Amino acid sequence: MFIRKAFYWWLFPSAVVLPVWLLIGWAAFHQGSGWTFLGLLVLCPILFVALLAIGGIVMARRSVRETRAVSWYDTGLLAGWSASIVAFGFFPPGATGWLAVLGVLFFLAMFWVGLWELVTETRERMSVTFAAYQQAAQPQQVPRPSSPVVDDADVIIIEEHRED
């Protein structure tokens, strides 16, 4: 549970930390042209929005908000995605291409798995809600007494007549 809670708290800070890490990693480890830096200036805002979108999809689930922990699927995919971004930030020679592809694949997997979990959980909650409304809408069956009720009370009838 501790790991799932840690990734819950990592969702939104990662949207800032990981793009900044790419810029720091470029400055520290990359020996090359400024074209890579220009590419990073385009990539970092896109990565920021992607991380925020994934965080929003994950946080939209009620179970995540109540337990303050992401699911194990989310944990595995977020760990892989974060690791691929961190590894990309070291700019290893000859490996940046496949690390970029790996990061995109992790994003797509995280997006679709997160959306699937959100829809599944929402569908289950809605079916429970509709079942409760259906139960409440059913007319209540009043038990009939086993013996007939005899009412010997006096009845007073008052007739009113108006004269126009």
Structure report:
- Keywords: Membrane, Transmembrane, Transmembrane helix.
- With 164 residues, the protein is an all-alpha fold.
- It contains six helices and no strands.
- Helix 2 packs antiparallel against helix 3.
- The relative contact order is 0.11.
Largest sheet: none
Could you list the spans in which at least 5 consecutive residues all have pLDDT below 50? Answer: none
Structural class by sheet pairing and helices: mainly alpha
- What percent of the residues sit in helical stretches (DSSP H or I)? over 70%
- Indicate the proportion of strand residues: under 5%
**Count of separate DSSP helical elements:** 6
- Count of strand segments: 0
Rg, Cα atoms, Å: 31 Å
**In whole angstroms, how far apart are the ends?**
84 Å
Order of helices and strands: HHHHHH
Transmembrane segments: 7-29, 35-60, 72-91, 97-119
Keywords: Membrane, Transmembrane, Transmembrane helix
Concise synopsis of the structure shown:
This protein is an all-alpha fold and 164 residues long.
Features:
rod-shaped; transmembrane helix; 164 residues; 71% helix; membrane; transmembrane; mainly alpha
